[in-house]
């Protein structure tokens, strides 16, 4: 996944674009939401990251990592 490669290279803008495109193409793709949340958190955009995590919980209310990240 190109977004993950961008994350590993700390190319946050490119990673964000990739994950947003993945979410746009498949709004139920939980891993894209999770990676988007991680990317947003890495760039200190916490409120936006929380929105992505909340979307995961709408799709999968028992998602352990999303619950843990939100707190």
SSE blueprint and pairings:
Layout: H1 2-8, H2 12-25, H3 30-42, H4 46-59, H5 64-70
Helix pairs in contact: 1-2, 2-3, 3-4, 4-5
Count the DSSP helices.
Answer: 5
SSE string, helices as H and strands as E: HHHHH
* Strand percentage: under 5%
Helix content: over 70%
- Alpha-beta content class: mainly alpha
> Could you give the count of β-strands?
0
How does this model look, in words?
The chain is 77% helix and 0% strand. The protein is mainly α and 71 residues long.
Could you provide a short overview of the structure?
The chain is mainly α and about 70 residues long.
Characteristics of this structure?
71 residues; mainly alpha
């Amino acid at each position: 996944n190109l977004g993950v490669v961008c994350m590993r290279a700390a190319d946050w803008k490119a990673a964000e674009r990739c994950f947003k495109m993945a979410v746009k193409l498949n709004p139920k793709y939980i891993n894209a939401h999770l990676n988007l949340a991680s990317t947003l958190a890495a760039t200190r955009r916490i409120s936006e990251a929380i929105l992505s995590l909340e979307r995961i919980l709408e799709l999968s209310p028992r998602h352990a990592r999303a619950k843990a990240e939100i707190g």
